[in-house]
């Protein structure tokens, strides 16, 4: 199982803060494609990804127990 | 006393500055980011800040480490607020102390730039005529035009 | 509420910053000059600040006007303390607000430079091994090497 | 009558904060020379001068009622 977190606009679009799915072994790119099909989340290609609270890239492979967070462009400060 | 904090309470700049004061430092530079009423002729009624809290603290600590590497004589504290904020309320306070003032100014300005690149905090604008998550529109600053660096 | 003040009481940076907050400003940069214990390997026990108070206020107002001319969107407040100050106590607070942060940083740093040139305030150092009025020795910065501009 | 103010080291040397003297018509330079002779104040040549709370120069002529302040190198901030 992996844990997926949504924030800001993505959270509103997904209608949820998180999702638990059996996607260990997927790359981030494959996970994005799956989410796009399944949940019709727009703009995932403009979204950064964090794995276990560190930024990562689309080629990273997800391990069982990972927390994957989609980070829309930040606007703090 | 945490040097890097996310809070839902109002922030007093003096509290953040107090964390970096020390006998070796002759200068403390503090930046407060406050909620502005007008942006490009559009009126803001309030803002809502949301954070990925645990990661936001980690990223602020990372920025603190970068600052330590570049300006070894500085000490840094950052507090960012989340939740609903009204006009003139403080969203973020950055405090940097140093023996001599130049590095405190430089490091402080570096930190606010890095926060805007790296720290997972989002701002939703409530205008008179609508709402939007800032930064999350193609016409503003999509990551393709210079977002945070990637870490593997 | 005076924007430019000399006081013999402790200064709270938040009080000075509060004077420049306004709905149009999204940034407040505050500089606090604090009493440092060590300077060039010499230990300071305490400082004593003396001011020509009425003229000091006038000169701070003059600096405020210079800043207004160069960065028209800023608002400035300065409080300088006089009397006996101990290590880590705050001698001066400069607060500048602006709609966008760049001018607040720039104006703030300009102001501290100008204070050190123009404002009639003197600091007496009490070291472990003696006392001296700072700046008033040939080896430091006599006016011949770049003091305040002359006004007729 | 003119009013003369001393600060910092000059005040300690003069042993007083102020002095009232009949020196209207003097230039600042002449006043400095007179003070040097009369009070043995050192380093007046390294001292700025303010007339009525504005910086002035050595050629300025002092008027009756003026307040002249000698400003050693400042060190505020």
UniProtKB/TrEMBL annotation, chains A, D:
Transmembrane segments: none
Record keywords: Molybdenum cofactor biosynthesis, Nucleotide-binding
A GO biological process held by the record: Mo-molybdopterin cofactor biosynthetic process
SUPFAM superfamilies reported in the protein's UniProt record: MoaD/ThiS
UniProt pathway annotation: Cofactor biosynthesis; molybdopterin biosynthesis
InterPro entries: Beta-grasp_dom_sf, MOCS2A, Mopterin_synth/thiamin_S_b, ThiS/MoaD-like
GO molecular function, one term: nucleotide binding
Keyword hit for Nucleotide-binding: yes
Pfam family, one: ThiS
Entry's Gene Ontology cellular component terms: molybdopterin adenylyltransferase complex
Subunit architecture: Heterotetramer of 2 MoaD subunits and 2 MoaE subunits. Forms a stable heterotetrameric complex of 2 MoaD and 2 MoeB during adenylation of MoaD by MoeB. During catalysis MoaD shuttles between the two heterotetrameric complexes.
Family of the protein in this entry: Belongs to the MoaD family.
Cited function: Involved in sulfur transfer in the conversion of molybdopterin precursor Z to molybdopterin.
Designated name of the protein: Molybdopterin synthase sulfur carrier subunit
Taxonomic placement: Bacteria, Bacillati, Bacillota, Bacilli, Bacillales
TrEMBL record, chains B, C:
GO biological process, alphabetically ordered: Mo-molybdopterin cofactor biosynthetic process
Plastid keyword on record: no
UniProt entry keywords in alphabetical sequence: Molybdenum cofactor biosynthesis, Transferase
Pathway: Cofactor biosynthesis; molybdopterin biosynthesis
Catalytic activity: 2 [molybdopterin-synthase sulfur-carrier protein]-C-terminal-Gly-aminoethanethioate + cyclic pyranopterin phosphate + H2O = molybdopterin + 2 [molybdopterin-synthase sulfur-carrier protein]-C-terminal Gly-Gly + 2 H(+)
InterPro entries in the record: MoaE_sf, Mopterin_biosynth_MoaE
GO MF entries: molybdopterin synthase activity
CDD domains (alphabetical): MoaE
Name of a matching Pfam family: MoaE
Domain of life: Bacteria
Record EC number: 2.8.1.12
Presence of keyword Transferase: yes
Enzyme class of the recorded protein, top EC level: transferase
Role, per record: Converts molybdopterin precursor Z into molybdopterin. This requires the incorporation of two sulfur atoms into precursor Z to generate a dithiolene group. The sulfur is provided by MoaD.
Family the entry assigns: Belongs to the MoaE family.
Subunit organization: Heterotetramer of 2 MoaD subunits and 2 MoaE subunits. Also stable as homodimer. The enzyme changes between these two forms during catalysis.
Descriptive protein name: Molybdopterin synthase catalytic subunit
Native source species: Salibacterium qingdaonense
Phylogenetic placement of the source organism: Bacteria, Bacillati, Bacillota, Bacilli, Bacillales
